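Methods — Computational structure assignment.
A single polypeptide chain was analysed. Its primary sequence is given first, followed by the predicted tertiary structure written as structure tokens.
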Amino acid sequence: MRKIGDKVKIKSLEWYNLNSFDGNILVRNSMYVFAQGMTKYCGKEFIITSIQKDIDMNYTEPVYQLRDATYFWHKWMFEPTKQQLEFDFNV
């Protein structure tokens, strides 16, 4: 699990374009939105400054805030860590 101070990389613009609806918005589970305005952060690294676990009763995943990157972020918007890739490979 990620924690405050961890460095994360936002998924690539190519990933966004492949998965978004007409290049405008990407929605997951009907409540987690990756909006077009967030694409300026694609492919860049940021530091986690805040993790909110209960921002709203509808959220089931932690919500992250990143230094110098406005918006609320979710773990599926980040590139997987080396450890996550190794785990997926070994399962």
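Note: The chain has one domain: 7-90.
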